[in-house]
Amino acid sequence: MSEDEFAVEITGSILATFAMAGPVLTFAAVIGLVIAVCQAATQIQEQTIAQIVKFFSVSLLLLVFGRALATPLVEHSIHILNDFPTMVR
């Protein structure tokens, strides 16, 4: 496997990971911002509220969209495992 092919596979792995983690992290950041604005407006300074809401909302997001989010990572993993014998030559 040449350096260029190796770089392509690493890039594919990174992009597949970002495809799964990006939407989840963005969703958690937006939920955190909304909770922070609500807490600032009501002057409730309890830090565990934001964590609990983010935990349950991200869990719900993964339950609903987990298969769609994991598809690029699973497909890339299958590609790596199928082409492994030719990659190590």
Mean pLDDT: 92
In percent, how much strand structure appears in the residues? under 5%
Gyration radius, to the nearest Å? 19 Å
Query: What's the SSE pattern?
Result: HH
- For the record, the count of structural domains works out to 1
What class do helices, strands and sheet pairing give?
Answer: mainly alpha
Low-confidence stretches: none
State the helical fraction: over 70%
**What's the number of extended β-strand segments?**
0
- Cα(first) to Cα(last) distance is 6 Å
* Quaternary structure state of the chains depicted: single chain
Largest sheet: none
Shape: elongated
Please report the number of helical segments: 2
Structure commentary:
With 89 residues, the protein is an all-alpha fold. It has one domain (3-87). It contains 2 helices and no strands. It has helices at residues 3-42, 47-87. Helix 1 runs antiparallel to helix 2 (47-87).
What is the element layout, followed by pairings?
Elements: H1 3-42, H2 47-87
Helix pairs in contact: 1-2
Brief synopsis:
The protein has 89 residues and is mostly helical.
Keywords:
single chain, 89 residues, mainly alpha, 0% strand, elongated
